[in-house]
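Fig. S4 source data, part A: sequence.
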Amino acid sequence: MTEYMSDDKVKVAILGGGSWGTTFANVVADAADLARKSGQEAAEVVLWARRATIVDAINEASENPDYLPGLMLNAELRATTDVNEALEGASVVVLAVPSQSLRANLADLKDVFPRNAVAVSLMKGVELGNLLRMSQVIGEVLELPEEQIAVVSGPNLAREIAERQPATAVVACPHEPTAVRLQSLFKSAYFRPYTSTDLVGVEIGGAMKNVIGLAVGVAEGMGFGDNTKASLITRGLAETTRLAVTLGADEHTLSGLAGMGDLVATCSSPLSRNRTFGEKLGAGKTLEQVVQETKQTAEGVKSSESILELGWANGVDMPITEAVVKMMHHDLSPARALAEFMSRSSKPERYGV
């Protein structure tokens, strides 16, 4: 850890060659360019991907045609299929794999993971079975202390950021100096990270927004208007806040970028996988049909179950999450889910926090 916190040359390894992993690697490479032009030490950036075709395209043409077709990446970004090469000498390791496969991926990496490196999670979910947040999975498998684990979250639709449109995010770590150091590594001309020490709030906000995004997508697919969608977003935020605060988060975190910001982006944009998935379901397609049509992971489909279990285990009322779970995993029709939600007993607007 002391090596990382020094001003020595930093190597950042990003593990995961999908849309968000590639986009974030490009952000860090652009940030390194900015540092270099300012006369500061620039980080070395290496992206690890499983598929040789992706690696070759990045190295030879500065493009990831499978996930970000038509977009040019930073020419200094280097990719490899050799995870040992990517991790060797890394002081920051960014993890961008599907949340439900994180444990298996980490088990394969444990023996080669640099012991002084900070692990940064880009994932948004709660592990099935163990009901652990992604930072907890990282700490458990890699046996890292919490001050060596960070999370990046916020309204971060990969395609827009890959196009270098202005965006913001939160870098959360219980050890504030680490969050500040990562902030400087990730800040580019178009990507502005803020810092936080509230790891719980940032992670719960990121996980829950996928579930609420599914619900809003279903409403869109059913033909409902802005009143319905605004209601789901607002009550979804209340549901998110109840869970996060019960788990020890600062409720103000959920009104920020990792809470409301991420929720609005996910629920409003057709670029959102979860919203698009829900929209197809609401339009009348079966779950099997939507799964077959969806090429990339919609994290909320699987994580909705573990998030609901986490809420129930902590005595938190989660009506929207429960409706999503029933639609995704128990064959409840969208129309019936809506009827059940609207017929719930009356309550004050603010309860359970």
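Fig. S4 source data, part B ends here. The chain has two domains: 2-197, 200-342.
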